[in-house]
Every structure is written in structure tokens, then in C-alpha cells.
Amino acid sequence: MSLFRRKPGKPAKRRSILRWLLLRVVLLVILAALGWSFWVYRQINLVAEQDLAQPADAIAVFGAAEYSGRPSPVFHARLDHAVQLYRRQIAPVIITLGGGSDRDSGKTEGGVGRDYLLANGIPFDKIIAETRSIDTEQQVRRLASIARENNLHTIVVVSDPTHLFRIQQLCKDAGLDVYTSPRPNYGTIDGWDLAMRYLHEIVSYTSLRLHLNGSAIHAWVEGRNDD
User: Fold this and answer.
1) What are the backbone dihedrals phi and psi of residue 156, each rounded to the nearest 5 degrees, phi first?
2) Which superfamily does 58-188 belong to?
3) Residue 119's pLDDT is what?
4) Distance between CA 222 and CA 178 in Å, rounded?
5) Which of 16, 99, 104, 142 is the most exposed place for a label (fewest CB within 10 A)?
6) How far is C-alpha 26 from the chain's CA centre?
7) Where in 70-187 does DSSP place strands (E)?
8) Tell me, what's the pLDDT at 215?
9) Considering the entire predicted model, what is its pTM?
10) Cα–Cα distances in Å, from 174 out to 10, 31, 160, 188?
């Protein structure tokens, strides 16, 4: 038995260096991801905590789920907030956004929103119902088209508090001048659901900035806004 330990050969030394470099890269990626996620989280909170509603040309309500022609609790709260803003004379027009799917039996979020506003005393000629968009990005694109067609320069956008940062950024990219106005909370939201709302917005905004359009991610992201 040799009294001297054999020194590792070059292949073993090279593998050790590669493992060290790989570990370093992985740690840097994790730190960067955590830093980015915290920054997005902070931006979501900054927008969510402020109601910037002020006199504008229109109020836009982003769609959420509807059930057989009735707005879901989330959509209900958004529409109620828009009605309150209209009655405060924040803007003379309300735009309801959102299409439907095969399972909706012809109903659309924009159409259901219009009907709800009519039932709450908003005149028909003061409502614009957009009924073709299927997600937040499409809603913003359709909103931009409506704004151009109707000479609308400033818009108060209404949605969930955690949803508004992404809407704000999408509107900015589309050349829209918007003021965010979060709908009031209703009931109680448990910690898990709130965490998932933040996670979905962080994933969604990151996907947007990386130009990722994976169908699975997209469906999950948009599904979080349809409660």
C-alpha cells in the first residue's frame, strides 16, 4: 500500500471545476430570480395601494368570469366600483371588456357587464361593450382600438388590486394614458389565495417581458383572474 495519496488526474480536476462553476451559475440565477420577483411584488403593491381615479374620458372595466349571464363576485365588485365612479362623474362613458368561450353559451363578459350596468341605471348610450377579447392582453389591445375610434385620451381602468400593475404596463405599451382604480375587497381572502394571486401576476408579468406565450402558462395566468 502506497504511503502517498495519488493526486487527482486532470479529468477529475476539470469535473470539479465545472461542478463549482455550475453551482455558482445556478446560485446567481436563483438570486436574480428572487430579486426580480421581489421587485415585481413591490410594483404590484405600489399600484394596488393607490386609487388614482380622476376625471377622464372613460372608465374601463376589465372582465372576469360570468355564470349564465350573471357576473361572478369578482366581476360584480369591479362593475359596482365602475358604477360608483360614473356617479361621481369621473367619466361619461363606461367600457366593459371581455369575450366568451364555447362553454358560455353565447354569453360574453363584456355583454354581461353591459347588462349589469343597464340594470344599475347607466344609460345604454354611455356604455361600450367589447365582446371579443379572451385575455388581459387582448382586452388592452381592444381598449386601445376603442380609444382611437372614440377619441378617448384618458381612461380610468378598474380591476382587482393585484391585477392593475400588469394592466398599467400593458396600457403603457399600447400607448394608452390610464389611471388605475382598484375595486374594493369583498369578503376575506385567505393567505394561500392571496399568495397565488401574487404568484400568478409575477409569472404573468415575467412571461410578458420575456415574450413567452406558452399555452399552459397563459391559461393558468388568465384563469386566476376569472374567479
Assistant:
1) -90, 120
2) HUPs (3.40.50.620)
3) 97
4) 21
5) 16
6) 29
7) 70-71, 94-96, 127-129, 154-159, 177-182
8) 47
9) 0.84
10) 56, 31, 20, 34
